[in-house]
Amino acid sequence: MQKAEPGTLTKEGLQTTENYPRRQALLVTALLAPGAGLAASLMAVVTMGILFFVAGTPSPAELFGDYVLKHIDVYTFLRLLLTFSPNAKTIPLGLALLGMFGVGTLLSWLYATLVRVKLPTRGYRPTLREWLSALAFTVVMTLTGVVLFWNELRQNHFGLPIEWAVLLTALALLADFSIYGVVLCLAYRALLPKYPPPGVAVAAHGRRQLLARAGVAAVSVGAGAGALGLVRAYLNDYAAYDGMKTYPHDNVTAPITPNSEHYVVTQNAIDPAPNIDLWRLEVTGLVNQPGTYTYEELQKLPSISRAVSLECIANGVGDHLISTAIWQGVTLRTLLAHHGGAQGTARYAAFYSVDGYNMSLPLDEVLAADALLAWRMNGVELPARHGYPLRVLIPGRYGEENPKWLTRVELTDHFVQGLYSSQGWYNGPLHTMSRIDHPRGKVALGQPVEIGGIAFAGNRGIQKVEVSVDGGTTWQQATLNPPLSPDSWVFWKWQWRPLMAGSYTLVARATDGHGEVQTSRNQGTVPGGATGYHQVTVVVA
Q: How many helices (H) and strands (E) does the chain have?
């Protein structure tokens, strides 16, 4: 057969085409490359979802969210909460996911620039240059993710120990970005216009090229459906209970809060679900004999049971983000004794959780508070939302400094920055508080009525509670019930017989075990925890 010049029609009905002009080639590339980028991004998201359910590894969107939270201040954090409320976790996560699609799509233009394929091209098999460019994308994106999210890599949904979690999450990033690179390379090549192969009719060649592009579209649609299904499955376990409060029943607070009513706050959209066969507690750092425990081994250590009240730093004056339970576990002092004690240079105790959360406090303070590592709550195995299989209880500190899902205790010679401390939240001893639980509404003239509620100052204890029925002008000392433990709230009451009808403002204030009176200064919860007197208005009739 005589060789045909570009742009001529042969007797066999075959056609050849000369290279596109530069402007036309750029336009075609600009239109087709995003299709390949979108297909690659969707397949990468499907890979992320599968790896989450199979291996418990977080997606880059989750890692990015955790990274951002540690690099904004408390006021920006609060503005974001208000902006995205009532979906303050799912909307940012969804936006991060959409951002991934956007970045993955835009990167396709960079890829097209690097591979510099002349149009039309020949065949559906990528060249070495295209494969090397895809490999470069994979390596650069993986290294960028590992370096940028290094402090976030240690989380694992199934509770793997930190070193294994870091390795597995890094490998998951490699897998995510490898899929992206491979699909980008193949899809881009499939979408490009091509010379007809020798011996192939123009119509047949057109059908083949149409099928190739339809295949890329089908992959995109299928991957999109898969990604949507995985996201829905992910959100089936959404922590909708976040911010649940403990309310009194008939204006009376129970001394011990049932597990189902204990206040709960979580940083996670989905809480971890540790596999007890994989989970370990590590005791490491500046201890004389580092070691590791399985769940079964941990429970063989000497344990105690103690009532400990927990209060959230977001608990407003008179609010109900405070509860009390009987916790069973091993004290930190006992645990460290089993490891030969702390080395002389140890100054801080750092606690790490399987969801990536961590915090640290001065070691002397933690030991003086007789911190407890608990695996039981009110006589049963620690519930999942309260930190199964192990959580920390540090009396005298707000709830965010009592980490759940604990996996590592590390003694260090320096303060270890955590989420709340990096944002600028207060990280000192909790403030003395008191709350009036009853009465409410109307009371009967001339009839005795009990004014009562709770007071709490952490492990400082409560020395005295005073009540005022005239807005704080005069005060009467209330009667205190014996506390359940030095670390629990205290119940107080005072009998009142109103002799005149009208509106009354009831006020309470407490004095802690060190003799310091609760401050009357009104302060909101952000960033230092609420202060001020709780006031209740009742009508005597």
A: 11, 19
Q: How far is CA 281 from CA 74, 406, 412, 479, in A?
A: 31, 7, 17, 44
At residue 308's C-alpha, the angle toward residues 304 and 312, to 5°, is 145
pLDDT digits 0-9 by tens, 47-103: 999 999 999 999 999 999 999 999 999 999 999 999 999 999 999 999 999 999 999
User: Do residues 324 and 456 both lie within one domain?
Assistant: no
- Reported as a single tens digit per residue, the pLDDT across 388-446 is 999 999 999 999 999 999 999 999 999 999 999 999 999 999 999 999 999 999 999 99
Which tokens in the block code for residue 492? 């107080």
Is 3 within a domain?
no
Assess whether pLDDT exceeds 60 at residue 2: no
In the listed set 397, 423, 449, which residue is the last one of a domain according to the structure?
423
Q: Which two tokens stand for residue 202?
A: 């123009």
Is residue 275 one of the residues assigned to a domain? yes
**Contact status, residue 409 vs residue 351, Cβ threshold 8 Å:** yes
Q: Write out pLDDT tens, residues 190-216.
A: 999 998 888 778 888 888 889 989 999
Contact 253, 452 (CB under 8 A): no
The CATH number of the domain where 288 resides is what? 3.90.420.10
The stretches of 395-520 forming alpha helices (DSSP H) are 419-423
The alpha helices in 250-408, defined as continuous H runs, are 295-298, 332-337, 363-368
From the centroid of its chain, how far is CA 46? 21
CA–CA gap between residue 402 and residue 394 (Å, rounded): 6
pLDDT tens-digit series, residues 420-432: 999 999 999 999 9
Name every residue whose Cβ is closer than 8 Å to that of residue 82 and which is 6 or more positions away in sequence. Answer: none
Tokens 């005149």 locate to: 500
Structure tokens at 122: 């020949």
Q: Give the model's pLDDT for residue 460.
A: 98
Of 361, 393, 423, which residue sits at a domain end? 423
Closest CA to 280 of 299, 293, 271, 298: 293
- The verdict on 399 and 464 lying in the same domain is no
In 10 A of CB 245, how many CB atoms?
A: 16
From residue 433, how far is each of 19, 227, 453 by CA, in Å? 79, 48, 11
Same domain, 130 and 152: yes
Where do the H-state alpha helices sit in 192-289?
202-235
Q: Any residues with CB less than 8 A from the CB of 252 and at least 6 apart, and which? A: 437, 438, 452
Q: Which domain holds residue 280?
A: 259-423
Given 3-state DSSP classes, what are the helix, strand and coil percentages for the chain, each rounded to the nearest 5?
Answer: 35, 25, 40
Q: What is the separation of C-alpha 269 from the centre of its chain, rounded to a whole number of angstroms?
A: 6
- Pair 495, 467: CB distance under 8 Å: no
Q: Are 216 and 187 in contact (CB under 8 A)?
A: yes
Phi and psi torsions of 474, nearest 5°: -125, 155
Residue 484 pLDDT exceeds 90: yes
Judge whether 8 lies within some domain: no
